[in-house]
Amino acid sequence: MISFTPGDEQQLVIDTVRRFASEQLRPLAHDADEQRSTPAEVLTRGWELGLLHNAIPEALGGIADAQAALTGALALEELAAGDVALGWHLLLPATFAVPLARAGSDAQRERWLTPLLEGGYAPLSAALIEPTWDFDPTALQTVAFADGDEYLLTGLKGYVARANDAAALLVYARVGDELAAFIVPRDSAGVAVLDREQHMGLRALPTYQVRFDGVWLPAASRLPGTIEPLLDRSRVALAASAVGVARGAYEYARAYALQREAFGRPIAQNQSIAFMLAEMAIEIDAARLLAWEAAWRLDRGLPAMREAALAAQYADEMVLMVTDRAVQILGGHGYIREYPVERWLREARGFPTFLGLAIV
Amino acid sequence: MIDFEMPTPVSRQVQFIGMLGEQVMRPRARYYDDHEGERPVEYTSLIWQTVRAQGGRNFSADTSERLDRDGRPRPRIGYLMLAHMVEALSWGDAGMYLATPGAGLGGAAVDATGTPEQKERFLRRFGEGEPKWSAMAMTEPHAGSDTAAIRTRARLSDDGREWILDGEKIFVTSGAMAARDSAGFVVVWATLDPSAGRAAIKPFVVEAGTPGMLVTKLEHKHGIRASDTAAIIFQHCRIPRENLLGSEEISDGRSSGGKGFAGAMRTFDATRPLVAASAIGIARASLEFTITYLRQRGVTIRYDVPLHRQTAIERDLRQMEAQHRAAWLLVLRAVTAMDAGQDNALEASMSKVKAGQVATFIAQKAVELLGPEGYSCTLLLEKWMRDARINDIYEGTGQINRLIVARRLLGYSSRELR
Ligand SMILES: Cc1cc2nc3c(=O)[nH]c(=O)nc-3n(C[C@H](O)[C@H](O)[C@H](O)COP(=O)(O)OP(=O)(O)OC[C@H]3O[C@@H](n4cnc5c(N)ncnc54)[C@H](O)[C@@H]3O)c2cc1C
Q1: B188 Cβ below 6 A of ligand 1
Q2: pLDDT tens by residue, A137-146
Q3: Residue B218: CB within 6 Å of ligand 1?
Q4: Dist CA A306 CA A218 (whole Å)
Q5: Which CATH code, of 1.10.150.120, 3.40.50.10260, 1.20.140.10, 3.40.50.410, is assigned to A228-353?
């Protein structure tokens, strides 16, 4: 029966993560962006929220219930409302672990998933994006050829978070016409981690280009399951995170507009400001409902490619609109880095690019 | 728990109305668009059977309590059902949907503000006999959005037994059918004292054919032409004193149990998502038609390809689909809140703002995408584009609903944010 009210346990997740995001992430966000680094303690503290465990089914050592994707979307919105770079950094291991849980073999799970769930934060990561303007996940340039019971992997990836110190990467590649994913230990011969990248936003999350120069991989390092649905899970994660960023920007701009005075009254009392805020709120809610529906379909095992793609596309446009208006509502102050809204605008523009950096 | 599963009765109803739309409404849609002012009898006679069988409640929600097998109350789905019905009928033809006989908008005002005796007296007729309409007349030539500024006067007659109405109402949906062409009625909002503002504005029931009530004009409209939109003049129009709905007292609405002007405004919380639902019905008609039309000509939408590989048409269609779904989900959120008995004024206005805009965006895009064919009257797309446009205007314009949303979000009164 249709309902837009989170369940009790989901509400608990929302409340807990919201508190963590506002008390622990938001206060660090400015400096983390300026210094291009995440304090290690916040990852340790965040790990204790058990969010990764929420995404992994019980049979595989997690505590996920039948709405894992939805709960993941709820948590990501809250994290991103605090700070998306720190939030994604915190959930980075999920980009490695969730694909294993959904499409991995028992041996792969035993080798990588179990220790991760039993241990502390470990920077396991994934490599999907390729650093070209026409990056296309359905036609990857990174390719692997089968040769006996080995694969030979070649290609260049970008936006690979923590590639410098991750023990292993989940590398997406094309095998013939198929989309595939391989577990690649970082110290494999032929793996070269290049310079750290500089981006407009998401600066607290260190990312690198990584070259795979004829890397030999055992056949057992390929994930046996279908890989396309993982992209849908990432699209939902991106949509939910965009909602979080937008909500943070909206709430900030709203509070600002209520207290900032011009011409003798709060600027919010002008329709041109009030209507912008009304539209921001409407669009945020609209995007959230689309993300929820796509997540719900994933959880139900229904086809979700269309819904996930549309939710992500909608959220991409929404978050840019909302953060851009937040900057406008703060006027000149919106342009100053001391205030968070310009950072949110920098982050918002990246959402059409961020595929693979988060997953539910 | 968050859930997107539709209850079976709702999906069944949508399917049924879909057939009605396809077989009864669509084939006559162009005719009534070309013949403005003619009653769409194929539809109205057919739907009247159903409306009458339901005691005349054409578009009021079933809010009765139902128990499941274990004696627990079942979740109410009255407004959810209603939104789906309105959406599906508007998919068939929005103009005809607006011309549905029954208690309608006038009935909603009676329901919201009348005493039990008045409800019985005025609403009974919709369960028997020939088709009848009711209408709601608020707007005047000089006052639309600013409803508190209406000037139509109501004075007591010298013997105190009648109200005498004087004034002019415009843009009354189904006004001719309610006031003149059937044994219906018009709920007329008039003031007992123009200096007393909202508190003195009261609803009065004027029976069809009452001397002094005159339909002076039928508007010629951009769209929804199967629905009549009338101007009605009241000249010393005498009605029984008992036809004032609710209390005669000039009060702020709170002390009269929320049934005065403020109470009536609250009924908009229920009707706005339904206007939004109607908008979505037109949007879905346009979208489905466009997608099917293009698919038959070899154009399909791919969802997994990145932006740079999407064709311009794909990009438009994807945007239309996403916008459509987003707006519909906002409507569903507003009606489920209504069913749960929660205050939904914010959600209602949000859904109205969004759907009012999205319906027009989609319908206009559809005409654009199909080029010379889209623009031609051989298809219904150009009509749907015209039909869609009203939804951002009546039941509160887009601006007025943005005001309502903004006031709620900012905690402002109507004086602080105007
Ligand atoms: C087909 C049709 C059917 C209708 N049916 C009915 C009916 O059954 N019963 C009934 O009573 N009425 C009905 N109406 C009237 C309808 O509700 C009004 O037309 C509508 O509320 C707008 O009023 P207006 O036309 O006087 O515009 P105005 O109020 O003059 O508004 C003009 C413009 O100014 C904007 N505006 C006004 N105030 C503000 C503000 N404070 N801030 C920002 N912008 C503002 C409006 O949004 C609009 O864009 C119908 C209208 C039509 C066209």
Answers
A1: no
A2: 999 999 999 9
A3: no
A4: 34
A5: 1.20.140.10
